[in-house]
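Would you kindly consider the sequence and fold I have copied below?
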Amino acid sequence: MPGRQPRPARTADRGGRPGGVRHLLRAAGALGRGPVAAEHAGRPLPRASDGGREPRPGRGRGVMGRHILFATIPAWGHTYPVLYGAAELRRRGHRVSCLASPRFAAEVAKVADPVPYDSPMDSDVGRAELADMSKVLRLMLQETRASFAALERVVRADPPDLLVSDVLNMAGWLVSRRFDLPLVRTWPIFASNEHFSLHQDYQSRTDDEESMRGFFAEAADFLDGVGLGSISPMEFFESQAERNIALFPRSLQPRGETFDSRYTFVAPCIRPPEESPDVPWLRAARPLAAVSLGTVFNEQNKTGFFRACVEGLEQLGWHAAVALGDKVRPEDVGPVSGRVLMRARLPMIDTLQHAAVSISHGGLTSTVEALAQGVPVLIAPQIGEQHAVADSVERLGLGVRLREPFTGAELAKTVKSVVDDADMARRLAEFRRTLLSDRRGGEFADTVERELAGQAES
């Protein structure tokens, strides 16, 4: 279908600093499912009842009763934080659809009509590649192809009035360009503008020249194939949105005061507790530390990290619930007492509800989940974004950074200083209230409806 020529894509935020998806790929630690197994879906959420653009139908209608299409990626840290927003939009009378791979279809179906597709990231191979940064670009392009095809089918058969797309779902921006759809971009990881760049400030990129050349060649072929040949691979890589929702409080965002009205910061949806057979042990364990490096980094062999954590907590006489991942065996960590529970994966929300401290890699979603329980965080960053999270946590006085390698004695000293800090406990309680103030997704839905209203007036 012929359409208007697209306006040029912005390739940088105001001031010229990169702010698109390019600088985010090194933050692939945020792509993991989180430290909870996929089969643990949690308790139910609150239910609510060719180079140019193709024309978008429906312009000029009122705001109520619109069709809103969500494009996430199959990762708990990216899908779950938007679900209360989707549920609230449905409660307000909108029709909500959401991209969903088989692993996430049941959870998505609680708040939206699932748009099924087979995701390369759902496979064992795909999840393993998230831990190999040289393969992330290729995997993300494969994911873009699959999600673009699914989104295109929806747009042609049942055109949405607005697209809500995760910053790492590159197909969302492309579909919005192809079909002239208004776009709201969600950020479950730190955003960037002219004052803060995750790539420049934390050296989060590791792509080399050869891998980038290969990526750009494959991206150009893909763009030609979907009728978007006028968009360069660099524009595709550096895409921007005029309306953005950051799924965490502004105070956590580095240089948060510099983000203008294009960015709305909201409290995310926090996963509910699970029905896990480990809950009785967790409930009885006092005091308890939760230990995990998240799904992606648990896939790397971090035996020394886990051994030091267990040794330090044993010295304190604490209980420890440790998510080891699939690469570290309990016997590799060494002999432990009955105060230590080691699993490949743990029901993390249940664990955090009973924990006095969280020791983690500092993934933003994992950190927010701990802070939502009022738990101080000890962060051992593995990649650039997690160093940024550690900096924000220390700036707000909500936890401390762990510098690897550390000994068990050093960890024990740090844990004791954190849990004995009365001022930190007060700050944690205040921050928890901030996180829980918008649990129903009201501000998220307000932002989407403002964009709908603006489009209706245009």
Notes: Residues 41 and 107 are 6 Å apart (CA to CA). Residues 1-18, 21-44, 46-51, 55-61 have pLDDT under 50 and may be disordered.
